[in-house]
Each structure stands twice: as structure tokens, then as C-alpha cells.
């Protein structure tokens, strides 16, 4: 995939609010699009040079109305296929996180926003490293977590996986609550994300509510 730089990033992007769906830079997220408004969004995105979709977590506001978290992650459409009944199977490659400046009113059936990419320059750079990562200890905790949640994985591939790919993939795939996924998204560095991930895993193993540690 062609690397993008800050000059390629647009000021306005379409938004796809999806609870619990986490996209991180340099990771990939499969999407299944079937709602008419998102089918329209996808077809419009294919006409742009950047092919970016902004993934963002919705949450309930003080009066129960749907609001959006300020920070999301934009992904570039890199693969897609169309089903016989008109749905799309799409793969997004994570490019950069963004901060919503304001939503844009318009005639499209889907939401758009003016966004700022400032503060997330590292997302466009090379793979991040985590000098303090203890893979053996991490995988031991992860195995207990997977057993507790009746999850399965290829442990041999995890032992050999690139550190960033391992941490980011598990952050995206593990069955955490949307607010916990948001905390993983907003982690300023790979090390911070790994520390957050470990905290969530360990707290879950102790039978606690992970919401308590995110207050």
C-alpha cells in the first residue's frame, strides 16, 4: 500500500460510527456494509483520491442522545468485494487518528466532519517499538484471558508476531467494552497502549468491571 503523508490528508472526511469497532494505524479492519447510507458513503469514498473513512465510537450523551467521541481513526479502503445482493465486504488500512473539529451539515445521508490530524503525526511514521515489552509474561496473561472468555488463537503466530502488530491486533480483537476500546485508541504511544491492554486483561481476570479503571 502506498504510504500517505500529511499533505494527503483531507480536512473533511465521512464518518462511520460503530460501537466497539476499533481501527488503529497500520492495522486492518474488515467491514460489512449493508445500510443504504453507508453503501452510499462507500461509493462516494471510492471517487476520492484518498479513499478515507473515519471510524469513530458513538456514546450516549447526558440526555441519552447519540454523540461521537472526539478522537477516531481514518482508514483507507484497500480491498473490497460486492455480494450478489449489493452489500460490500471492505478492508480498511489504518492511516492516522484524528480529532473531530465539527460536524458538517450537507445533503449526504451519512455524517461528515471537519477534522484535525495535529498531534497524531507519529501515526504516519514507521512501525512503533515498545522497549519494555515482556512477550512471555504478556502471552501468559493473554492465555488465561482467552481461556476465561473461551477464545481461540494460533499461539505460535503470536510468539513470532511483530510487537506493534501483536498489541494493536489484540486491542482491536479482544472483547472489550466500547469505552475500553476508546482508551486503547487514545493511548499516546504503543507502550501506553500495551500497558492499558495489560491492565484491562488483568482486571478482567480478577473479575472486576473494567469501567472502574477508566473513570
TrEMBL record:
<protein>
    <recommendedName>
        <fullName>Lon N-terminal domain-containing protein</fullName>
    </recommendedName>
</protein>
<feature type="domain" description="Lon N-terminal">
    <location>
        <begin position="13"/>
        <end position="205"/>
    </location>
</feature>
<dbReference type="InterPro" id="IPR015947">
    <property type="entry name" value="PUA-like_sf"/>
</dbReference>
<dbReference type="InterPro" id="IPR003111">
    <property type="entry name" value="Lon_prtase_N"/>
</dbReference>
<dbReference type="InterPro" id="IPR046336">
    <property type="entry name" value="Lon_prtase_N_sf"/>
</dbReference>
<dbReference type="Pfam" id="PF02190">
    <property type="entry name" value="LON_substr_bdg"/>
</dbReference>
Amino acid at each position: 500500500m502506498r504510504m500517505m503523508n500529511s499533505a494527503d490528508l483531507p480536512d473533511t472526511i465521512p464518518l462511520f460510527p460503530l460501537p466497539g469497532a476499533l481501527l488503529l494505524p497500520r492495522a486492518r479492519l474488515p467491514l460489512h456494509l449493508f445500510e443504504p447510507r453507508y453503501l452510499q458513503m462507500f461509493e462516494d469514498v471510492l471517487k476520492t483520491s484518498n479513499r478515507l473513512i473515519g471510524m469513530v465510537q458513538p456514546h450516549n450523551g447526558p440526555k441519552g442522545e447519540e454523540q461521537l467521541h472526539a478522537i477516531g481513526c481514518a482508514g483507507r479502503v484497500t480491498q473490497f468485494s460486492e455480494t450478489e445482493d449489493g452489500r460490500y465486504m471492505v478492508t480498511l488500512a489504518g492511516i492516522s487518528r484524528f480529532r473531530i473539529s465539527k460536524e458538517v451539515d450537507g445533503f449526504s445521508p451519512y455524517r461528515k466532519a471537519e477534522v484535525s490530524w495535529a498531534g497524531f503525526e507519529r501515526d504516519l511514521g514507521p512501525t512503533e517499538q515498545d522497549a519494555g515489552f515482556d512477550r512471555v509474561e504478556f502471552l501468559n496473561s493473554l492465555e488465561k484471558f482467552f481461556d476465561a472468555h473461551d477464545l481461540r488463537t494460533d499461539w505460535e503466530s503470536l510468539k513470532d508476531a511483530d510487537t506493534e502488530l501483536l498489541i494493536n491486533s489484540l486491542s482491536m480483537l479482544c472483547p472489550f467494552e466500547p469505552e475500553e476500546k476508546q482508551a486503547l485508541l487514545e493511548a499516546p504511544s504503543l507502550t501506553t497502549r500495551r500497558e492499558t491492554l495489560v491492565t484491562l486483561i488483568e482486571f478482567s481476570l480478577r473479575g472486576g468491571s473494567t469501567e472502574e479503571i477508566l473513570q
